[in-house]
């Protein structure tokens, strides 16, 4: 990526501090009981696990899972293929570059909060093709198909991706069941939303950066979907904004663990019982970093709104309904150009704030 272009430089208040605060207290949750044939035979053990999940979602919005059931060899296979792909010359990688028509594939000029990220990525959707709205216009019912682009090299990338995606999908459903139970809902309460899911996997590569005090691998943001499952290498760099004091803290890499975070959709479904938490990625001046996030997202036609069971006269809905597909493609559009306005957020649909945001950005319903 060469010298630090001004496009990468964060505003002064958002520049990372090179003195790192290690995260203490982010929960480690052992999921081994879910992989046991008699997992449901001991209700007290399940209750304890559900309670752990609920506390982690409420107090942190992030947690790590171990003994999660995803075969290590499948993760390693995709990590190896990812490294091979990104090691190619730029001229080879851009053969599968994404654009406003082909929105999946390789990309190296993504922006977060209108500042360019110090990274390159490759996106694949779990369902191929994935169906999404044709436009952001609220009255337009037309849909289009997003198709994955597969590079010629490495040839094993597609198989590695498909095997890994299948395992991460299974884990996502298990986690959604635990989250539902922790909210006092039936375990399968959210399953139906993912029948025609818009989930995707991203391969991230962060090259060494000569100015890690000015740029970020990914700027501060919250994940718009339901759930994110992150595999990161031993270099690390993920920072979470601690809810208790707003301090940025580093999530230390743990071999073979996954980092889970609650997305905006769960914040809405839970009517803010759980909150999506801001996070970002620091870059390293000496070492490159790789990570693989899995974004578990519902079908495009999903109307996201607080769950009826979790609202009442004393606890009224805090968000008005919005169409996930329209929201998704509005957000996607910002990947390809710097916007003159702040990108759309769920806060724009918060009922107490509607009066302040009745503008064109809300035309996704």
TrEMBL record:
Molecular-function GO term, any one: dioxygenase activity
Assigned keywords, A-Z: Iron, Metal-binding, Oxidoreductase
Xref: Pfam families: 2OG-FeII_Oxy, DIOX_N
Coiled coil: none
PANTHER family, per the entry: 2OG-FE(II) OXYGENASE FAMILY, PUTATIVE (AFU_ORTHOLOGUE AFUA_2G00750)-RELATED, OXIDOREDUCTASE, 2OG-FE II OXYGENASE FAMILY PROTEIN
All copies of domain Fe2OG dioxygenase, residue ranges: 197-298
Entry-linked SUPFAM superfamilies: Clavaminate synthase-like (SSF51197)
Similarity section: Belongs to the iron/ascorbate-dependent oxidoreductase family.
Official protein name in the record: Protein DMR6-LIKE OXYGENASE 2
């Amino acid at each position: 990526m060469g010298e630090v272009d001004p496009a990468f430089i964060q505003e002064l208040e958002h520049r990372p501090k090179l003195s790192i605060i290690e995260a203490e207290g982010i929960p480690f949750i052992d999921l081994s009981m879910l992989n046991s044939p008699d997992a449901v035979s001991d209700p007290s053990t399940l209750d304890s696990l559900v309670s752990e999940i609920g506390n982690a979602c409420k107090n942190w919005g992030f947690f790590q899972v171990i003994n999660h059931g995803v075969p290590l060899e499948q993760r390693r296979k995709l990590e190896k293929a990812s490294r091979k792909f990104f090691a190619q010359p730029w001229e080879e990688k851009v053969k599968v570059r994404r654009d406003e028509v082909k929105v999946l594939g390789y990309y190296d000029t993504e922006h977060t909060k209108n500042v360019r990220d110090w990274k390159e990525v490759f996106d694949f959707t779990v369902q191929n093709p994935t169906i999404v709205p044709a436009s952001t216009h609220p009255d337009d019912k037309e849909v289009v198909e997003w198709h994955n682009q597969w590079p010629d090299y490495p040839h094993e990338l597609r198989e590695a991706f498909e095997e890994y995606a299948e395992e991460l999908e299974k884990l996502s459903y298990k986690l959604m069941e635990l989250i539902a139970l922790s909210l006092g809902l039936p375990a399968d309460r959210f399953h139906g939303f993912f029948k025609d899911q818009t989930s995707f996997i991203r391969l991230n590569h962060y090259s060494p950066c000569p100015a890690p005090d000015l740029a970020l691998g990914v700027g501060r943001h919250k994940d718009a979907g339901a759930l994110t499952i992150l595999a990161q290498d031993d270099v690390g760099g993920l920072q979470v904004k601690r809810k208790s004091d707003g301090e940025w803290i580093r999530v230390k890499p743990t071999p073979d663990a996954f980092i889970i975070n609650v997305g905006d959709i769960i914040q809405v479904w839970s009517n803010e019982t759980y909150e999506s938490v801001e996070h970002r990625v620091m870059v390293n001046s000496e070492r490159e970093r790789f990570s693989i996030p899995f974004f578990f997202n519902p079908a495009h036609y999903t109307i996201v709104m607080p769950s009826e069971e979790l609202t009442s006269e004393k606890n009224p809905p805090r968000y008005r309904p919005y169409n996930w597909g329209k929201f998704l493609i509005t957000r996607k559009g910002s990947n390809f150009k710097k916007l003159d306005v702040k990108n759309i957020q769920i806060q724009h649909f918060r009922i107490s704030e509607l009066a302040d945001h009745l503008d064109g950005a809300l035309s996704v319903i």
